[in-house]
Amino acid sequence: MTLVEIAGSGLAELTCARLLADRGHRVRLAPPRPPGQPAGAARAGAGPRPLLLTGPTLDLVGRLWGDGLLDGGWPLTHRHARWGAGPSPGRFPQPGRAVDGAVLAVRMRERLGTGDLSGEPPAWTVTATPGEPAGERAAHRQTGRRRLLAGTAPVRRPRDQDTARLDCTGLGWLHLTPLGREACLVQAMVPGPAGDPAGLLARLLAESALGTRLRRPPRTAVALAAAPRVHLAPALPPVAGRGGLLVVGAGALRQDPISGTGTAQALRTAILAAAVIDAAAAGTSARALCAHYADRLRAAFHDHLGTCMRLYPAAFGSPAWRDEIDAMRHALRGGAAGTLPGRPDRAVPEPAQEPPP
Question: Could you say which of 119, 149, 150, 279 has the lowest number of CB atoms within 10 Å?
Answer without folding.
Answer: 119
